[in-house]
Amino acid sequence: MFSLAKPFSLSLLTLLGFALASCQANPTKPEEKAVKTQATNTLSGLDENKVVIQGVVTYTQNLFLLGNQTLLVMLEDVSRQDAPAELIAQDKHEIKGQIPLTFAIHYDKRKLKVGHRYNLRAQILDTTTGAVNWLSPQPYPYVPGLTKDINIKVRSFDSQVRKASQFQTFICGKEKLTVLLIGKKIQLNFQGRQWILPQVQSASGAKYQTGSISFWMKGSNAVFMETGKPAKRCALEQ
């Protein structure tokens, strides 16, 4: 009979020898360990230091905001009275809709210093020209970790913002349609869309039209018309 014990033992020892040699030939270098550890710590540190300030911007006057506007809310360091405020972070985005306007400022808390004072400031800008149409007249104090329920109030000083008496809401079936009178034009908002319609000649009432969209109103009644679709009859909201 043949014995397989010795060849099997030799083969096992041979494999173990190759594995040990491979580990010794490719050891993990200390500097590689340091790089991996540093990268892990850096990533976790970034997450720990991220802070988000969330709040709303509202108006102090009974006014209506026209389209093509941008909201800018800034976090500033106002500790030095002999120097301009230092910008820490900001949220700047195009406005879609009316009040309240929401914002979210992302910043790194390592930029804040113990004992310093911080304020929030809001502006509403003309998207095309960058002109300031609305702004917060008073600074809004911000204390990291303590300030909550942020509501920054802004006031208008620009001629493009019109009084609410020129703003009307109509009910068209189960949908709302809003109209802002601007001289001989109207800004019309309906079904999530917005148009500026110039006034055109009409036998009675007031008619506004541009392209495929037209709007006619007289007293408390109105009609919204879009080419290729049935007309929608509307009544002034009571």
List keywords for this structure.
Immunoglobulin-like; Lipocalin; 47% strand; 238 residues; 2 helices
Q: Helix content range of the residues, please? A: 10-25%
CA gyration radius, whole angstroms: 33 Å
Structural class: alpha+beta
Overall shape: elongated
Write down the CATH class of the largest domain: Mainly Beta
**Beta-strand share of residues:** over 45%
What's the β-strand tally? 18
Order of helices and strands: HHEEEEEEEEEEEEEEEEEE
Number of domains: 2
CATH architecture of the largest domain: Sandwich
Q: What's the number of helices?
A: 2
Low-confidence stretches: 1-6, 30-46, 158-165
Arithmetic mean pLDDT:
78
- Give me the CATH fold name of the largest domain: Immunoglobulin-like
The main β sheet shows up as: 8 strands, mixed
Tell me the span between the first and last alpha carbons.
109 Å
Short description:
The protein is of the alpha+beta class. 17% of the residues lie in helices and 47% in strands. It has helices spanning 5-25, 30-49, and strands at 50-59, 63-64, 69-77, 86-94, 101-108, 118-126, 132-135, 140-142, 150-156, 162-163, 167-172, 175-182, 185-190, 193-200, 206-210, 213-218, 221-226, 232-236.
Structure description:
By secondary structure, the chain is α+β, with helices and mostly antiparallel strands. It folds into 2 domains: 50-157, Immunoglobulin-like, CATH 2.60.40; 166-236, C-type lysozyme inhibitor (Lipocalin, Beta Barrel), CATH 2.40.128. 17% of the residues lie in helices and 47% in strands. It has helices at 5-25, 30-49; strands at residues 50-59, 63-64, 69-77, 86-94, 101-108, 118-126, 132-135, 140-142, 150-156, 162-163, 167-172, 175-182, 185-190, 193-200, 206-210, 213-218, 221-226, 232-236. Strands 1, 3, 4, 5, 6, 7, 8 and 9 form an 8-stranded mixed sheet that branches. Strand 17 (221-226) and strand 18 (232-236) form a beta hairpin. The model is unreliable at 1-6, 30-46 and 158-165 (pLDDT under 50).
